[in-house]
Request: fold
Amino acid sequence: MQQAVGTAIVVGSINRDIVAYVEHHPSPGETVLTARGSLFAGGKGANQAVAIARMGGAVSFVGRVGDDVFGAEMRAFMAGEGVDVDAVATVAGATTGLGLITVDASGQNAITVLSGANQMWDTLPLSFHAAARDIVVCQLEIPLPVVLAAFRQAKSAGARTVLNAAPFRPLGLDILNATDILVVNQLEASALAGRSMRDGSDTALAHSEPIGLLLDLGPQLVVVTLGADGVCLAGRDVPETRIPGRGVAAVDTTGAGDCFVGAFVAELLRGTDVVQAARTANAAAAISVTRHGAAASVPTRTEVDHALATKR
Ligand code: RIB
Reply:
């Protein structure tokens, strides 16, 4: 049996998600009524940490919550999932991050994040210690100097770094140079590779084109998630590999990318090669979209193993 060989240190965001299920997303100026909705655990960082834990990986979290009820709830939820939350600080007077989410009848989401405490980092260097076998994971819902500091700390310890460059923000080469593995969706890949998502052309590049461009910016491996179409990855030592989608009926795609990242990292911690890790993560994400919520929808390793065994 494979054993976990390291710890994932997730440096990222924690949100309370307020989710409304609607027939269609509101247009500017429009009000949409619905009777269906819920509060969920969220934030890309927290979702990824929970996914790592549910896939059997050891994970600690470095983040910020406000001194409100949502912060206390999120801390308790993550701890209950087996995430080490000792390095989650409570910022006095701040609100915990909020994810304001609508999910339409096709399961697609639209998200506005009110960052709150996620943007309030006043202490660098960060309070974590990485070892060479560890993986440090960041997303882009926290200040970019924090991401850079986390990755520099990781590199000085010889640890690997995984950046989920979501949501898209223009990035300096300093962060991309410190990134070993970059995970993005198709739009983020195109935007990072220099194509505007809102320039009128509006179409993402074919998946393989930005991978080549992004590999030139620093990462050793680039993984592009393609939603229902699966995943494409390529690296300096990894030939371009396409993993097809698993053909599930989506009810809520919120957090599917986070589920992918967390499951992928959990596999890497076990020593799984990157292609098989992406295959497993693709299966985990496919399960997550058949359920509601972000962190709540992440499957366990048993569920993912079962899905892989019963459907290729
Ligand atoms: O990726 C999904 C997440 O994005 C949600 O949980 C929301 O909080 C935002 O961070």
Remarks:
- Residues 7-13+44-95+118-309 form a domain with the UDP-N-acetylmuramoyl-L-alanine:D-glutamate ligase fold (CATH 3.40.1190.20).
